[in-house]
Each structure stands twice: as structure tokens, then as C-alpha cells.
């Protein structure tokens, strides 16, 4: 008989706000709530402009989804004004999961990360997808245009403290692991699809990504 799995015992589920607050008392530090605002504050703007990477969270009929977004710092997202962010959609695999999700539900969230910085910046808002020619030209990079730009109407902005980054050692070089210690992309695809030759996929992957970066 297998050992009892404690997560199967639902008697201890925190399934109400009262139960949650019994474990997590209300914030005592005023700054915990006061750091939130409904626009891109001038002191939050540099964090967005310095970030080369963010995670985009959206919602689909099948549930929640997250997608990575990356570009050189200053090109990832443009702060059009205190209430508007512009996120170009660079070349990908054409699944367009996030864009389809925005059509279903415009609510979204962004988590901005800056290498070497412990704090993350969280943005929540509403998105719409634009293919306005002048807007696409605005985000030309290496001679390539994005196919669309996600226009984000900002609703909430606040920073996340550095505890999670510090606990994870995310920016600590000693925490880095070799890519070869994990299953290769080709091995994963071959296991899930009979149409993929994993070894051939891996052999061509770096060159293909370099050719199709933008």
C-alpha cells in the first residue's frame, strides 16, 4: 500500500477567507498596500524600461496561461503614457495562445524581471491587439516588424519584494545549471510526437532560432 499523501486530506484546506486570515493575518506594514497605484508612477517607469524580460498572464476558455516575452531592455515594452503600455509581439511559433486569450478576455497581467535586481514589477490591466501600420513601424527591430502590438490599459501597478528572487538564487551565477542536465527540446518533442526526429531537431535548433529571432 502506498504511503498516505497528506495533500489528499481536504479537512485542512483553507477554503474560505476566514480560514486564510487565520493563517495569514492582515498586512501590518502600511507600505504593503500603499505601494500599489492605478498608473505607471514615475518611479515605477524605470523598472519597466530596464526590463528585458516579462511574463504575460492571460485567461482562455480552458483556463489561465503564462507566456514569456523578451527583448533588449528599452525595447521590450514602451510606456506610451502613465496609463498605457505597448508590447510588440515578436516572431514565435504562431500558436498565438496569448493573443487568442486576449480576444476571449482582455484582462491580463505582466511580471517584469531585471537581471541582478531582486524586486519584480507587477502590472494588471486590459489588453487589445493592434496592427496599425504606424504602430508596427514604431517597433521595427533589425529590419523586422512585429505582426501586432498589445496595447495595455494599465489598472494596477506595484512592486514585489525581493524575497522570492533571493530565496531562489535566480541571479546567483552559482545557481546556474548546464542545459545538458535536462531533457533536450528534441527529446521532449520526439517523446510527444511521432513526427519529430529528436536528434535532428536538436542539431538544427540553435541555427534555426538565430535565423528566426525576429
TrEMBL record:
Pfam families: PNPOx_N
Source species, domain of life: Bacteria
InterPro entries referenced in this protein's UniProt entry, alphabetically: Pyridox_Oxase_FMN-dep, Pyridox_Oxase_N, Split_barrel_FMN-bd
Residue span(s) of domain Pyridoxamine 5'-phosphate oxidase N-terminal: 44-161
Protein name (Swiss-Prot/TrEMBL): Pyridoxamine 5'-phosphate oxidase N-terminal domain-containing protein
